[in-house]
Amino acid sequence: MDKSNNRSVWIVAGATALMMMGIGMVDPLLPDIARHIGASPWQVELLFTTYILTMAVCMIPISVLSARFGSRRTILFGLAMAATFAVACGLSDSITALAFLRGGWGLGNAAFFATAMITVLALAGRHAGTALGRFEGAFAVGLALGPLVGGVLGSISWRAPFFGAGTMFAATFVASYLLIREPPADPAEHPRLRDLAAALRVRPFLLLTLIAAAYYFCFFTVLAYTPLYLDLGVLPLGIVFSLWGLGAGIGSISLSDRLIRRRGLVRAPLVSLPVLSALVLTILLTGDRGLIIILVILSGLAFGTTNAIFTDLAIDVSSHGRRVASGAFNFMRWLGASVGPVLAGLLSAVAPKLPYAVVLLLLVTSFLALFLGRSSLEAAVRETALA
Predict the structure, then answer these.
(1) 11-40: string of b/e by CB count within 10 Å (b at 16+)?
(2) What is the DSSP annotation of 115-161?
């Protein structure tokens, strides 16, 4: 790709890392925020749920509007919203205000992630594989660094990470405004709402999105509830989830490719899901906090591996085009993810480990659904490849 497109791809990748940092940055702060503003477990989990739910609800209309207003403008809008609401979170004094403002931050993320991957692929042209690798790598870097940055800044004050995130988003907005090019328009990639609905009516794609919704419920339950369960200090939690994110990055960039080459795209998660289930089962059976920390960190490898596989599957299973498939898939997976944190907070009042039992049940159910539907998914992948 030419220099200007290559530069644009790197800027989008860097912004992706920062947006992912914004998700994980809050993770080690949850117990401290709960103590400082007097929030219960389910209330403090609203910081994840309102954020993710807004992303899910806004993802489809933004996918449609981005084709009309342009990918570059949509990315800039997302960064501006994230910067504004991150700073506002740092100024708030109640759990209600924080939950509402995190929802606004989620709007920014919805605008960014509805457009970022499509922009990278369009700019890269025939170098799409390399560009997608950068995007996945940035995703992983953000997951790894977010909790660590949150832990370091959070050891000063629970407000500091929000101000830090806002500053980084603002700087990235300026860089993106100056350096990102608008990718060439593709008339075939201008979706309408009925196109997204039509994609979800295709059985193999619908099956995949339902499995992904259950999987992302599990992903964000472990990510958002475990800090409350472990009840460590802000910096130790930041280190634990930075290592978890590092594992997710290794799984996303390296292990997923190896597994796909050996087992095929559809059958690869039939290996990673049982591994993840075994780790969660062990968490349920042990009372040793040190062992639980190790198991949680190791789960990052399986989560990252499965995450990358499902992302690739979403594009290859659907014949409705990348923008349509991405919009529909993102809506379903983020919708499932939004339920996990707040439900975990409510279930923890019944039994501290009950959220992990629900996670295990959904992981096993996802495995069975994928196993039974593997033939139709493989047929859909072949049809898309031939189209």
Answers:
(1) bbbbbbbbbbbbbbbbbbbbbbbbeebebe
(2) THHHHHHHHHGGGHHHHHHHHHHHHHHHHHHHHHHHHHHHTT-TTHH
84 contacts 106 by C-beta, under 8 angstroms:
no
Please report, for residues 44, 95, 346, the alpha-carbon distance to residue 343 in angstroms, rounded to integers and kept in the order given. Answer: 12, 17, 5
Question: Is the CA virtual torsion 260, 262, 266, 268 positive or negative?
Answer: negative
* Residue that the structure tokens 């912004």 belong to: 15
| Domain ranges across the chain | 3-386
- Tokens found for residue 167: 């500053």
Alpha-carbon 114 to chain mean position: 12
Would you write out the chain's pLDDT as a tens digit for each of its 387 residues? 567 777 777 888 888 888 888 888 888 888 889 888 888 888 899 888 899 899 888 877 887 777 777 888 899 999 999 999 999 999 998 899 999 999 999 999 988 887 877 777 777 666 666 666 677 677 778 878 888 999 999 989 999 999 999 999 999 999 888 888 777 665 555 566 777 777 777 788 888 899 999 999 999 999 999 999 998 889 999 999 999 988 888 888 788 889 998 988 889 999 999 999 999 999 999 989 999 999 999 999 999 899 888 888 887 787 666 667 777 788 888 889 999 999 999 999 999 999 999 999 999 999 999 999 888 888 888 877 666
Does 1.20.1250.20 match the CATH number of domain 3-386? Answer: yes
CB 238, CB 28: distance < 8 Å? yes
- Give the list of residues 6+ apart from residue 49 with CB closer than 8 angstroms, or none: 99, 338, 339, 340, 341, 342
Burial of 362: CB neighbours in 10 Å, binned 0-12, 13-18, 19+: buried
Given a contact cutoff of 8 angstroms between Cβ atoms, the answer to whether 109 and 51 are in contact is: yes
352 Cβ neighbours under 8 A, 6+ residues apart: 229
